[in-house]
């Protein structure tokens, strides 16, 4: 039983780290490949300092890796399937009912390149 407790605590810590919309968006953006802070800030419409702070947390927990090229710092997911894992959680988000409209989740799925599971196409 102690090993289950340890693993449960570790998983809870991971979920706490991921429990921030900016960090989830960063992971989703890095799913497309390595990017620098400026590119991430522009893509996510966030201040570069905020992106750097989130990347530092993700890096400290070994979810992203950093590569330096001169003065530039490039980031990539340490485990590419992390983004897929997060995208797989979308069916558990009942955003369609809470917002009273489906457009928001459909737009996110389209931006993230994920086919809508509710689509009849």
Automatic annotation (TrEMBL):
Annotated HTH arsR-type domain residues: 3-97
One function term, GO molecular function aspect: DNA binding
Keywords for this protein: DNA-binding, Transcription, Transcription regulation
Name of the molecule in the record: DNA-binding transcriptional ArsR family regulator
Keyword match Transcription: yes
Gene3D superfamilies recorded: Winged helix-like DNA-binding domain superfamily/Winged helix DNA-binding domain (1.10.10.10)
